[in-house]
Write a structure and sequence with these properties.
The chain is of the alpha/beta class. The chain folds into 2 domains: about 170 residues, no CATH class; about 140 residues, no CATH class. It is built from 15 helices and 4 strands. A 4-stranded mixed beta sheet has the order 1-2-4-3. A hairpin with a 5-residue loop joins strand 3 and strand 4. Helix 5 packs across helix 8, helix 8 packs across helix 9 and helix 9 crosses helix 13. It is globular, with a radius of gyration of 21 Å. The termini are far apart. The C terminus is likely disordered.
Length: about 325
């Protein structure tokens, strides 16, 4: 297993310093090693277009602003810190769940678009994805809060990557539930918190972590299926409006806040660490009492079978 954090510092610097007409092809070359993250998309994917759709840094403006931000990332030692964090997190995870297979992972770190108000304010300068096995995507604007969270942000996405790697939890876009994603966000935050304390909380979820009304509202949507319906329930109404989905009356980061509460209750009920709970079924996390009762019934049936054998002998 190898984790490769791509050297996008020098590549982004070259893109931003090049004549504008040359930038798309330079960017395409930079993104090429991570194109596998789009392998489930239908047809041929335009990497440059996907970069723009994901609030990636612009190719036709704000060069000085982006170069200054790039320097802040370099000064923060972002690439090395992410590499060390992921290497350490894999060791912790494998020790807790030695049965899992860890894929080779390619990590793509890019700057975002400083003129994208939704990205800079609602998303707090952060877009990340670790759901496709073998790839982690980190789009970070170097706000001080984001720089302080480089390691837990990367570890959060690693948790997703390992949970949904082949042979582990199956993610079927048509049948997966809101509950699965809410639980997965809570598990990823819990793993990041296991390693980095409160910095492991995703920033978007913090404002509503103790909001009982938000928590209760998210719980009403846990059985909704089809990932096309997830944006509002997990990320909130502002994200839903941004991406053409239907709002449901939830603030930004609602699903993250709810996921943390569900997972913390599950870990307390089972005595597990977040790393040990990597592959926990979402249904068990959502209802840990029923999970314990089911386990007790299985154990009781097993003990009864053993007793029967002893009696017959």
């Amino acid at each position: 297993m190898t984790i490769t954090v791509l050297d996008t510092h020098s590549a982004m610097r070259d893109v931003l310093r090049a004549p504008r007409a040359e930038r798309p092809e330079l960017l395409r070359a930079m993104l090429e090693p991570a194109k596998g993250m789009y392998r489930y998309f239908p047809g041929e994917v335009d990497l440059v277009a996907m970069h723009a759709m994901g609030s990636g840094f612009p190719l036709d403006r704000d060069e000085d602003r982006c170069l200054e931000a790039l320097e802040r990332l370099r000064a923060a030692d972002a690439w090395r810190r992410i590499q060390l964090a992921l290497d350490n997190a894999v060791e912790v995870q494998v020790e807790a769940t030695p049965q899992i297979t860890v894929p080779d992972i390619t990590v793509l770190l890019v700057l975002g678009d400083p003129a994208d108000e939704h990205y800079m304010t609602t998303s707090l300068g952060m877009v990340a994805n670790g759901s496709v096995s073998g790839y982690i995507y980190l789009n970070i604007w170097p706000y001080e809060e984001n720089l302080a969270r480089l390691e837990p942000t990367a570890v959060h996405e690693l948790n997703h990557n390992l949970r949904y790697s082949p042979g582990n939890v199956v993610w079927n876009p048509a049948t997966v539930t809101v509950g699965e994603q809410v639980v997965s966000e809570g598990l990823a935050d819990a793993f990041a918190r296991q390693l980095y304390g409160d910095l492991g909380y995703a920033r978007v979820g913090l404002p509503h972590l103790h909001d009982d009304a938000v928590f209760a509202k998210v719980l009403t949507g846990l059985d909704i299926t089809g990932m096309q319906n997830f944006t509002a329930w997990v990320h909130g109404d502002a994200h839903a409006l941004r991406y053409g989905a239907t709002p449901v009356g939830l603030p930004t980061g609602a699903g993250y806040a709810a996921g943390n509460r569900l997972v913390d209750a599950y870990l307390a009920a089972t005595g597990q660490t977040a790393a040990q709970a990597l592959l926990a079924p979402a249904a068990d996390v959502i209802n840990p009492r029923e999970s314990r009762a089911r386990s007790r019934r299985v154990l009781d049936r097993g003990l009864s079978s053993i007793e029967s054998v002893h009696r017959s002998s």
